[in-house]
Write a structure and sequence with these properties.
2 copies of one chain form a homodimer. With 190 residues, chain A is mainly beta. Chain A has 3 helices and 14 strands. In chain A, the strands form 4 sheets. The first copy, chain A, has a 6-stranded antiparallel sheet with strand order 2-3-4-12-7-10, with no helix packed on it. Chain A has a 3-stranded antiparallel sheet with strand order 9-8-11, with no helix packed on it. In chain A, a hairpin with a 2-residue loop joins strand 5 and strand 6. Chain A is globular. In chain A, 45% of the residues are buried. Strand 10 of chain A pairs antiparallel with strand 1 of chain B, so a sheet runs across the interface.
Chain lengths: 190, 190
Amino acid sequence: MQSLTSLLSTYDPLTGEIAGASTVERHLCDLRGCFADSAAFEAALARANPLLYSVAAVAPAQGEGELHYGVGKIMPGKIGDEYYMTKGHLHAWRPAAEFYFGLSGEGVMLLEDEATGESRMLPLRPNSAVYVPGFTAHRTMNVGPTPLTYIGVYPARAGHDYSTIAKANFRCIVVERDGKPVMLERPART
Amino acid sequence: MQSLTSLLSTYDPLTGEIAGASTVERHLCDLRGCFADSAAFEAALARANPLLYSVAAVAPAQGEGELHYGVGKIMPGKIGDEYYMTKGHLHAWRPAAEFYFGLSGEGVMLLEDEATGESRMLPLRPNSAVYVPGFTAHRTMNVGPTPLTYIGVYPARAGHDYSTIAKANFRCIVVERDGKPVMLERPART
């Protein structure tokens, strides 16, 4: 069996840190191409390059049947009408699902069936779980005024495919309308 | 994609209930053979048959790569020196791992490698995760004065094998010594 330290981990539901775990940080410059309003993106980036989100991950074992988890933290903010978001990804091993559990703050998840393009927007809040089925692209946004933190649990062999999303992007965007998140068709690039 | 209701679930971290989910309850009578002190077990059962634990489960999809989760709740109490516990199980599909996340109260998990018998006792507390690797029997105990609640996430195809544990039981027991949980070799049956 693995060592005690690899079987036990402790996270902070407010900072999103996992003690002793590696963390990936994404700044505004890393999200080029994600936001619909590219003029607003370039204007914001000309002013500053803030941290948009971080993900800490725990990977105790590899192989079929094993699991990993991460804690994500997305800062509050918007580019144009769009909320700060993750790049979004598919799993490299397409059948891999993922469970998200909200820890603090208020988010939404955008799910898109890779085969059909069918899209769903789901709330991500403390004490609730969002299921991302296999074969489904997923992106997370912070729609509240405070940092959003959440747990994601996925098969060890899931892997991350960012490039498919980077090429085609999601079919839908999530924007603020009258103070609330609304899912819309992505506007044609101008 | 599945319906919105099957992708989104809400749980109560204190009661352990998942809105709209099926729940299994285990009372003292269901745990016959689990506790080392069988005389204390029979004496307690002669007095009352309390609820020991419940598990609510969410199963949005079946098949390879998909995931399920449950919320468990174990009541505080002891039989002899042993804490109230779950029956414990192996996964029917042995490679299946499980992540536990503590929600409220104070617990420990007993892990036992099926092949080697190697045993580990790990704390299960809010804001911490315990990893149960594949091929590992696991049992959860409430070692505090209030109900223990926790999330468990596992592959959809894991399944539950209770019978192997029911026959052989775990090699170790967890008892209270000076107010703290201690793992000991299971005493020979008298």
